[in-house]
Design brief:
The complex is a heterodimer of chains A (442) and B (320). Chain A is built from 14 helices and eleven strands. Chain A is of the alpha+beta class and 442 residues long. Among the domains of chain A are: 44-71 and 191-283, 2-Layer Sandwich (Beta-Lactamase), CATH 3.30.450.20; 83-186, PAS domain (Beta-Lactamase, 2-Layer Sandwich). In chain A, the strands form two sheets. A six-stranded antiparallel β-sheet of chain A has the order 3-2-1-6-5-4, sandwiched between helices. A five-stranded antiparallel β-sheet of chain A has the order 8-7-11-10-9. The longest helix of chain A is centred in the first third of the chain and has 62 residues, at 17-78. The radius of gyration of chain A is 54 Å and the shape is rod-shaped. In chain B, α2 crosses α10. Chain B has twelve helices and twelve strands. Chain B has 320 residues and is α/β, with parallel strands linked by helices. The chains are: A alpha+beta (442), B alpha/beta (320).
Chain lengths: 442, 320
């Protein structure tokens, strides 16, 4: 320890011990905390994703089932009109069946009864006058042929006046003579179904057809914009992505540009896709809440660790500072300084050593002062001899001689003054060397 | 930064994390409303259902839909002085007046015929400009209505037409009925109306030369005076065809047309979206989805008319 160190030696230290101790203690507490926080966050995220996947798949299945149910209701009503075989002309039963169909199924815009040969017998519409026995040939109509082949035929989605989505459905009777009923349905009615489907709090369900056109969406305006609708592009992207992943969880955006997680389910009959999308903000809300909790706990842990490390480092550095201060004082010649320390550890022992050392130094200083005082009256060799411990006998025998010589020649005593030291040393060379030897043995 | 400040800064950061957000005050929307006459407060109710509270979040400047052309322009100009967020126009002339006198204010139309046919908007899917709304398909429905009328009263030959001549949309509807009547072999007697007072003249003409049936083109002018038509029809035992189900409930014999509650609800939805910042011209027009055929058997009984079973079979609503 440099006795000439200034009043605040810490300021000049390149890497003070306090910082090192603080850093080590802090890191020892914080690193495990961070590691556990990070792993919790990661596994929490994986769990959340899995739960979300299951949830959205279930929601997509439910949405598809509800739309399927809505669609299936239409041909099941239409089936009543293909029960009776056609005779000549238009019979009352077919007419009444048709009126009932129109009344029961508001989604049907118009319906055509076609006999077994594909000739139109009756057309009933909500907007146009009814047409009876027009005999228009439907035998090459894909709807007629499709229904003939599979009993039930779903047509493509078309746009009425470039806006409203319409679709043709055809149902054939069990017997060929019962003919086929071809109905045009207004898909705007699906809006009632789709807007009643709630996905979480802010999620939505929507439907795209096989040519990736929007068929149903809670925002009816999106559907009514028809083709060239850029707003529907992100929904198409979701449909494509979901199809690639077998309906599973996909990420994308909704029409408002919000990030969403989505799942899809195919609707069998018309080959549509029902999609459900949940904004990521809501989808990952639980994990985000958990992350916030973890972050807060981490913050508290870090603050606690910092406080702990700070306190411990101070307690450790305090005694070292005390030792340093004590050493500084001793170095400055204050040998009376004593370092008080009751830490009960190695530092306390070190402090005791310091105190002992200071005591020794104080003794040594005292003796050297006494020698100097004696040197004013005695020759240096003698003064040192007088003060040298372990030469009492020698001193006793010489004391008498010195006293006797002093009495005869007082100048001999005066010669013992320090300014005559060099000459004295020359004169008493042997004694001087001996005194040096003695001093060296101290 | 002093190293000893490191620890207190932790606490400070934590405290700063709790930042509060100030709430912006709720906006009060100002809506100019050309009211839908006897249809009642449906539109206001439909808006209330969407969270608007009159006096708190929405204020209506209510004006009658019917007035002569110059009157509507004056009213629209007065309305526009009140810093409107939206005009809801329940007729074609009201929409035109708002377009003319309330620049930059978006408009939602209903009961204004087919806005594509009248040229108010470009197309159903992309209206453009600052108008959207609910389109009526009444010109298309003309033939259907006449057919139903003829089915209910097979002996009908001459049909008296009552319509608001001053409304382009109603004129177009009347023209469509005329054209379809010709196809069905019916004769039409035209009784154009210009003001509520002109009803008396029309009724007088009908009394002198009674028609077999009456066809009323419904709008802000004819609906309030329909009672006169019902009284005449009862007295002269003639059937009448109305365009809205609720008119049948008020005394009309037959009514075929779009579900008016549905129309009003859709209009309220569009109004809501425009108030929330959607551009009116970007919102596609909505066409009617539900149609109702209403038969008033009570009126039929009063007038001594027999309604065929096939007509009752296809009616959605029978008043007994």
């Amino acid at each position: 320890m440099n006795a000439n160190a200034g009043p605040s030696p810490a300021a000049r230290l390149r890497r003070p011990l306090f910082q090192k101790v603080f850093a080590v203690l802090f890191a020892a507490v914080v690193l495990p905390l961070l590691a556990s926080g990070a792993s919790e966050a990661w596994f929490g995220y994986l769990d959340q994703r899995h739960t979300l996947d299951l949830q959205l798949r279930a929601e997509a299945d439910a949405a598809a089932a509800r739309i399927q149910e809505f669609l299936d209701g239409i041909p099941s009503q239409m089936n009543w009109t293909v029960q009776a075989p056609w005779g000549e002309g238009l019979d009352e039963r077919h007419r009444i069946d048709m009126f009932r169909l129109m009344r029961q199924t508001p989604a049907i815009v118009d319906a055509v009864l076609v006999d077994g040969d594909g000739r139109e017998r009756l057309r009933v519409s909500r907007t146009d006058p009814d047409v009876e026995m027009s005999e228009v040939d439907h035998s090459a109509d894909p709807a007629f042929l499709g229904a003939r082949a599979q009993r039930l035929w779903w047509g493509p989605v078309t746009l009425h006046r470039g806006s409203e989505p319409f679709m043709t459905v055809a149902v054939a009777g069990a017997r060929q003579s019962a003919g086929v009923t071809i109905a045009e349905i207004n898909l705007k009615f699906i809006w009632d179904v789709i807007s009643a489907i709630h996905v979480g709090q802010t999620g939505q369900a929507f439907v795209l057809d096989r040519s990736r056109e929007l068929v149903a969406h809670p925002d009816i305006s999106l559907v009514l914009r028809g083709k060239d609708n850029p707003a529907a592009a992100p929904l198409r992207a979701l449909q494509v992505a979901a199809a690639e992943r077998g309906g599973g969880l996909v990420a994308g955006a909704d029409t408002e540009g919000r990030a969403v997680s989505a799942a899809a389910k195919r609707i069998e009959g018309p080959d549509w896709t029902a999609l459900v999308a949940l904004p990521a903000a809501e989808a990952y809300q639980p994990i985000r809440a958990a992350l916030w909790r973890t972050a807060l706990l981490l913050l508290a842990g870090v603050a606690f660790a910092a406080a702990l490390a700070y306190g411990l480092a101070r307690r450790m550095i305090g005694p070292i500072k005390a030792l340093e201060d004590g050493a500084s004082h001793i170095g400055a010649g204050e040998f009376g300084t004593r370092i008080e320390m009751r830490t009960g550890d190695e530092l306390e022992r070190l402090a005791e050593r310091f105190n002992t050392m200071a005591g020794q130094l104080a003794l040594s200083q005292e003796r050297s002062e006494r020698i100097n005082r004696l040197k004013r009256f005695l020759s240096p060799q003698i003064a040192e001899l007088v003060e040298s411990p372990g030469h009492e006998r020698l001193l006793d025998s010489h004391r008498a001689v010195v006293t006797a010589r002093g009495a005869r020649d007082p100048s001999a005593v005066a010669d013992a003054r320090p300014r005559n030291r060099i000459r004295d040393r020359d004169r008493h060379g042997r004694g001087d060397r001996r005194a040096d030897r003695l001093r060296g043995s101290d | 930064m002093s190293f000893r400040l490191f620890f207190p800064l932790f606490l400070l950061t934590g405290i700063l994390a709790w930042a509060a957000h100030a709430q912006s005050p709720a906006k009060v929307y100002r809506v100019g409303l050309f009211t839908c006459s006897r249809m009642g407060p449906g539109l206001e109710q439909a808006l209330a259902k969407r969270g608007y509270s009159e006096g708190k979040t929405i204020q209506f400047d209510r004006r009658p839909t019917y007035s002569d052309g110059a009157g509507l322009h004056r009213i629209a100009a007065e309305m526009a002085g009140g810093q409107l967020d939206l005009v809801i126009a329940c007729s074609y002339p009201a929409a035109v007046a708002a377009l003319d006198k309330a620049p930059d204010v978006p408009i939602v139309v209903l009961h204004a015929g087919d806005p594509v046919e009248t040229g108010l908007v470009r197309s159903v899917s992309h209206p453009g400009g600052r108008i959207t709304g609910v389109s009526q398909v009444s010109t298309v429905l003309a033939a259907k209505r006449l057919q139903l009328l003829k089915e209910a009263a097979p002996n009908v030959h001459k049909v008296a037409m009552l319509w608001n001549e001053g409304d382009l949309a109603m004129q177009m509807r009347c023209n469509a009925v005329q054209a379809e009547a010709k196809k069905l072999g019916l004769e039409t007697e035209l009784l154009p109306l210009r003001s509520p007072e002109s009803f008396q003249a029309a009724l007088y003409r009908m009394s002198n030369d009674p028609p077999d049936a009456i066809f009323v083109v419904a709008d802000g002018l004819t609906i309030p005076s329909d009672d006169l038509v019902f009284q005449y029809a009862s007295a002269h035992r003639v059937p009448d065809m109305e365009e809205y189900g609720f008119l049948s409930h008020l005394g009309g014999l037959l009514a075929y047309g779009p579900d008016d509650e549905d129309e009003i609800d859709r209009a309220a939805d569009l109004a809501d979206r425009v108030l929330h910042g959607a551009k009116a011209g970007d919102l596609p027009l909505e066409l009617p989805t539900r149609y109702h055929f209403t038969v008033n058997l009570k009126a039929a009984h009063e007038r001594g008319l027999e309604i065929p079973e096939t007509v009752l079979e296809r009616s959605d609503d029978v008043i007994e």
